[in-house]
Amino acid sequence: VLEGAVDSHYGIGDTIWDGSWVLRGYDAGFHLKSTTAWDDEGGGSDLYGFKALPGGDRFTNGQYYNLGGHGFWWTSTQHSIPFAYYRLLYYYYPQMYRNGDIKKYAGMSVRCIRDE
Q1: Under a CB-based contact definition with an 8 Å cutoff, are residues 27 and 43 in contact?
Q2: How far apart are alpha carbons 50 and 52 in whole angstroms?
Q3: Mean pLDDT, rounded, of the chain
Q4: Which of 17, 38, 60, 111 could be a cystine partner for 42, CB 3.0 to 4.6 Å?
C-alpha cells in the first residue's frame, strides 16, 4: 500500500506491485529516500517525510554490508520458513525492490508505525 501511495505512476492496487524479486513501480523509492546520506548523490526527494536511510544489512558473521548504498527493511510478511519478505532501496534506482530470499536472522532495518 505504501509503495502505491507514493509512486507517481502506479497507484495502490496496480498489478505492478504483485511481482517479487523485481524492481517495482516507477519512483516510489525516490520519494521515500532521504535527501542525504546516500552514495554518489543517490538520495531521493523525501516527498512524504519517510526519510529512508541507507543502513545496509548485517549477516550472521556480524559484518555490515552496503552501508551508504542500500537500505533494507523487513516486512511483517513471511515468505517461507525461515524467510520473510523485505524491501530494498538502491542508491542508483528510483524504484523499490521486493524479495524473500534472506533468512530472518539477518540484520535489516525495521520501521515502527504508531497508531494515533
Answers
A1: no
A2: 6
A3: 91
A4: 38
What confidence tier does 40 reach under pLDDT thresholds 50, 70, 90? very high
Instruction: List all residues 6 or more positions away from 93 whose beta carbon is below 8 Å from its beta carbon.
Output: 23, 29
d(CA 52, CA 37): 10
Q: What is the widest separation between alpha-carbon atoms in the chain?
A: 40
Nearest CA to 70 among 39, 104, 94?
A: 39
Share of the chain above pLDDT 70, in %: 100
CA distance 96 to 102: 17
Residues 6+ apart with CB under 8 A from 2: 28, 32
Average pLDDT over every residue of 50-57: 94
Sequence-ordered alpha helix ranges (H) in 18-89: 28-32
> What span, in angstroms and rounded, lies between the C-alpha atoms of 56 and 12?
27
Cβ proximity of 10 and 16 under 8 Å: yes
- The DSSP string of 96-107 is EEEE--SBTTSB
